[in-house]
Amino acid sequence: MGPKRHGQRVDKIKDFRGTLIRLWKYVSPHRLSLFLTVVSAIIGVILMALAPAIMGRATTELFRPVTEGLGISGIDFSYIRNIILILIALQAGAALFGYAQQFIMAKVSQQVVYSLRKDVDEKVSRLPLKFVDAQTHGELISRFTNDIENISNTLQQGVIQVLTSAVTILAVLVIMLAISPLLTLVSILIVPISGFSMKALVQNSQKYFVRQQRIIGNLNGHIEEMFTGHQIVKAFNHEQASIETFEGINEELFAEGWKAQYFSGIVWPVTHVIGNLGFVAVAVLGGALVANGQIAIGNIQAFIQYNRQLANPIAGVAQIANMIQQSVASAERVFELLDEEEIRPDDASPLKIEAPKGEVVFENVAFGYSEGRPLLKDMNLKAAPGQMVAIVGPTGAGKTTLINLLLRFYEINQGRILIDGIDITRLKRQDLRTLFGMVLQDTWLFNGTIRENIAYGKPDATESDIIQSAKAAHAHHFIQSLPKGYDTVLNEEVSNISQGQKQLLTIARALLHSPQVMILDEATSSVDTRTEKQIQSAMKTLMKGRTSFVIAHRLSTIKEADLILVMKDGSVIEQGNHRELLEKRGFYFELHNSI
What is the dihedral of CA 285, 291, 297, 300, to 10 degrees? Predict the structure, then answer.
């Protein structure tokens, strides 16, 4: 089952029963806790259900002297006092078991969503890059947060409400039958009417809850995009367009959310009104029975209370039915993610390169992001250990794709990629990627100290190792000039250091990792001349003794490359060193002269 892309409409739950069964697999390990919750619910509800009958005895006792003509002196106040003490004990016991239910289910719900989040997190790590590329970050985050939180709320509140409602209905009906089968029959005649009304309203609201969850994902995606690209939005005066897009999604969310809540909200008053019809019928018929001496007045009072107790859980079930609809819609979105096709498993008997040299070979490699649209065609190249291989070509030529294939972010359609003579599909991805270091144009640093960012690829690095890497990357000086040096915390947007300083830190991180093959995406266009020279010097240090793949944006920076691959329309159309390619007077020659 594939994911729903940003903006794609999904208006109903596809497999309600199947989703509940899958959700039960996460709940079933906690069967003992659920059993204790059921026991607590039964005991608590029975204690609550006994109260009206016992209170009815007090009412009968208070009215007995009136019917017998004895006056107030004929009331047995000690009997009334004992009833009050019993009622206090019943209420205290019911509260205690109610607390036990809440405590147990709170723990169960958190354990269930912990397992769900864990599975989703592990699943994302096994998903191919093409899936992540096709999603907005906000949509993925929505499944981690909003959808799983909906499941948690339903487990914590809904399960208890369903249990207590079911037990209450059963217990109340038993007591009502013991008091008066005739009045019970009048009361339960209202139940089918309430049931049909509830079913119609719940089915109508289901589609709106599904749409609401989809739009929330879209809204999160838009907000995430606008905040991460806030500076660009302002630079291009796109604020108004962004606001209009937000308002469009927000209005759609309002419309669908309003309908969902409207149909959810009217369930209670509709069932409540229908329940009151039963209340009126019981009051009228009960009064006639009391007048004829067929039933004690206290029992009528108790029966009226039981009638109310019977109506409330029915309406409560209606309310929780809407919550379950929303939760199942959320669960289905989570399970859709868990059902996504994963990356090809690692080789069952993987090889390992014990002493990597860094030889990289492409043999007849073909690849396309979508079927029938090849991007790389019959690509062949060989990078000897320690060589600097530059990749040049116009935008869309396939330069970044080549790097994605090297790291197995995407799988090739045909051919082989070899490292030190071993097909990379025979290596574990984890082992393969430890051979590579990356310094990309889009610098990625996280919210943490500079020390933690440099040591990201080698958490056990010593302080001396970190400082040595920083010095080699020409980053040590600027780090020392910061108020807290290596303990300076980079903020979430990493806006408290310059672009050039970010790049130097990524180089220091790569140096500390000390891989055998380096992938470099030139990123000096947005820095000053002095910083550019520092970055270029640091990159030379980084490439020394290592096989390097450099995605070149400016030909002036790759004149010393051992091998230059000239790519166009997914193919390597020329290769050689700088001098050889100029002598060919081909596409590279044209690129060089166009600068």
Answer: 0
Give the range among 105-119, 143-157, 258-272, 397-411 with minimum mean pLDDT.
258-272
DSSP 182-208: HHHHHHHTHHHHHHHHHHHHHHHHHHH
In angstroms, rounded to a whole number, what is the distance separating the alpha carbons of residues 286 and 215? 52
Rounded to an integer, what distance in angstroms lies between the CA atom of residue 501 and that of residue 524?
A: 11
Would you state the structure tokens that stand for residue 238, as one six-digit string?
């796109």
Do the Cβ atoms of 291 and 283 come closer than 8 Å?
no
Q: How high is the mean pLDDT of the chain?
A: 80
Rounded Cα–Cα distance for residues 269 and 318 (Å): 11
- Measure the CA–CA gap between 521 and 535, rounded to whole angstroms: 12
Question: pTM (2 decimals)?
Answer: 0.61
Q: How do residues 312-321 score in pLDDT, each as one tens digit?
A: 676 666 667 7
CA 512 to chain centroid, in Å, comes to 33
Amino acid at 483: P
d(CA 500, CA 538): 12
Do 549 and 383 contact (CB within 8 A), yes or no? yes
- DSSP state letter for 425: G
**What pLDDT does residue 419 have?**
93
Specify the length of the chain in residues.
595
